[in-house]
């Protein structure tokens, strides 16, 4: 069996300073930076999610105080009741507008009098 030995004629090149960065596997720094940015992004996202959850809970509590009987309702029923309440308020606004325009037109016509 023949063994091959390295001879002194074989040149080994030492990495030059400009090649020292390239001696590392390609993309090593990028992956490290990417992992760090992913970790900080996940920390930021979890903080944002916590803030969002707190904001949603505050808004639900506000709805419960605004909507009549809302404190006794669950979230789904609260949303349905809120929608109904908004529609009822819109109807009241329309009724007030109609009455206001009617009364304004009556004031212009002094001939029409109420109650006698």
From TrEMBL:
Glycosyltransferase listed as a keyword: no
Nucleus among keywords: yes
GO cellular component: nucleus
Subcellular location: Nucleus
Biological processes, Gene Ontology terms: regulation of DNA-templated transcription
Family annotation (InterPro entries): bHLH_AtIBH1-like, IBH1-like
Region (Disordered): 1-55
Biased composition (Polar residues): 1-21
Keyword annotations: Nucleus, Transcription, Transcription regulation
Name under which the protein is recorded: BHLH domain-containing protein
Species annotation: Brassica campestris (Field mustard)
Classification of source organism: Eukaryota, Viridiplantae, Streptophyta, Embryophyta, Tracheophyta
């Amino acid at each position: 069996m023949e063994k091959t030995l390295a001879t002194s004629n074989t040149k080994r090149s030492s990495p030059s300073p400009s090649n020292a960065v390239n001696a590392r596997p390609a993309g090593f720094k990028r992956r490290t930076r990417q992992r760090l940015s992913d970790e900080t992004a996940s920390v930021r996202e979890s903080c944002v999610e916590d803030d969002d959850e707190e904001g949603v809970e505050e808004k639900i509590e506000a709805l419960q105080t605004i909507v009549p009987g809302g404190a006794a309702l669950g979230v789904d029923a609260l949303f349905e009741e809120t929608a109904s309440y908004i529609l009822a308020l819109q109807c009241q606004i329309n009724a007030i507008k109609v009455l206001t325009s009617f009364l304004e037109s009556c004031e212009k016509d002094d001939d029409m009098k109420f109650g006698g």
